[in-house]
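Honest question from a wet-lab person: if I give you the sequences of every part of a complex, can you actually get the arrangement of the whole thing, not just the pieces? Trying it with mine:
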Amino acid sequence: MTTQTLDPTALPNLTEQRPQRPWRKRTPRFKLAVVLAVIIPAVVTWFLWQTSTIPTPVLLVAIYLPMQLIASTLASIVTRGRRGIADSIVIVSAIGATVFSLVILLSLIGALIVRGWKALSPSFLLQNNIYISPSTPLEYGGIGHAVLGTALIVFLASLVAVPIGIATAIYITEVRGRAVPYVRFFVQSMSGVPSVVAGLFILTTLIVTGALTQSALAGGLAYAILMLPTVARTTEEVLRLVPDELRTGALALGSTRARTVFRVVLPAARTGIVTAIILGIARIIGETAPLLLAAGNSDQTILNPTGSPVASLPTYIFNNVALPYPDAVTRAWGAALALMIFVAILFTLARVLSRGRLGR
Amino acid sequence: MSTAEFESVDVLESEITTPAAAASTELEARNVSVWFGQRKVLEGVNMSFPKNSVTALIGPSGCGKSTFIRTLNRLHELLPGAALAGEILYEGRDIYSRDVDPVHIRLAIGMVFQKPNPFPSMTIRGNVLSGLKLSGMKRSNHDDIVEETLTAAGLWTEVKDRLDRAGGELSGGQQQRLVIARALAVQPHVLLMDEPCSALDPASTLKIEETIRQLSKEVTIIIVTHNMQQAVRVADNTAFFLAAENEPGRVIEQGATTEIFGNPQDERTLDYVSGRFG
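Yes, you can. This is the full assembly:
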């Protein structure tokens, strides 16, 4: 074999090269097919929308979607032959489904903002509802008492559900006792308990018997029943993701099983456990029925966890939205908007907190 | 066989390996057989490990080497369906007798795994000291321990300025030396190493081999390796494991490394160490 020597002057001038994406080069035929496949169904649908009396949803689902599917399929056949059919069907349905769910979500948020925006003000967030009647103008009264009540109830629920939920997950993944299949089945069934049943359970076992009155504690216990399965199952999932090498590694250093769990496995899963707790809170924070039964309602700011009924955002919304006064309904929408903003803040906070320096 | 085949090996072994001096036996396996469920994976292993010697276990994949060393510090029993017969004597006592706490055995007989497994939630320093916390062992002067063990593992100069960074930020070779330091911090008498260099580049491998030779002055080392040159470079004694098809693994031949590689008695050992199969 001979060695080739490269003549530097024979090389093309590399500084003139520009980055290119040859895999994206399209033929004019392809571009034309795509443009037609997008424009024709849209124009036809728009024309029908203008001229006919077909209701808009029917028009979109029964006419536009099938037409778009057929157009995309034809475009694929023209550009790529029969291989393109499955591709185009999958792409159109995926985009359609995504747009559909985004539209629902955005219209929900839009409705909240449009109808609730008027009510939002610093005083609305801070004041309570004493001396406020449904016909009082919007400038007076607020949801401060309900925000504090919800926070108190969720805090009490977490105090109960988080330790028990994490302990359950540890039993399932780390202790691996004989009862694991039964425990898992039980937790799974528990996540199907309707929230009103959780409220009824607390009402009949604790309130009717006189052990508690309607209060933040009773509401928190009802919430805890709903929160527990979410925390337990999510924590179980994240503990499963902790590699077994870490457990074996700890045991090989002479660790007991308890120390392995508390000093190696749980810290390694810390981020996921925070997520599990947040998901548990998000699961319960808007539940109304258990609080109507177990926590009651109040117009005052109550910080005592036992002894008296307490307000919360869901019951505030529930009580105001059905009243025949426009301002009361606006207050309900404002409270709903506030609730959604709180949940959004909670999720953002969880994302930021879990981005720690260690344990990624 | 041609003599030329072993020339390169001879050069290496004259450089490094000397047959183990007749020292007292620290760890001994007597007639050990191992099962997973109904499947017997290892049969009748007899082997003794002299104090402060390095023993290499070689053989093709699936012949039970890793399973065997996991029986030596009672990690085997953590796997589902694990069973075992025979005795393993540590300082003359069966580690599987009922009054022995596996936690004490694992503290005295440490282990380094194939895949580096630093604890992700801990810093480099925290990883080194984690064994003390996990085992509840009391040792003072943590700073000295960190420096000492990281130096012994050949990592100190590379990490001394960033002991508070996460262990997971290190490269694979550095992580493996970090977990060696972690294993040393609890002062084990025996160190089991399950293919510690299989995921590492040649430079890191050489560093770890150097570490092994340093450690063998104070610690008994048993190392599983697929790299025969590595066995020649670091081990006083070598045992060759082999499993025939659908049969449990057995020890075909064991003895001084120079003998196993230079003058093997069994045809299969010769075939394996000369690279004809496996």
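Two things worth pointing out. Chain B has a mean pLDDT of 88. Chain B touches chain A through 31 residues (CB under 8 Å).
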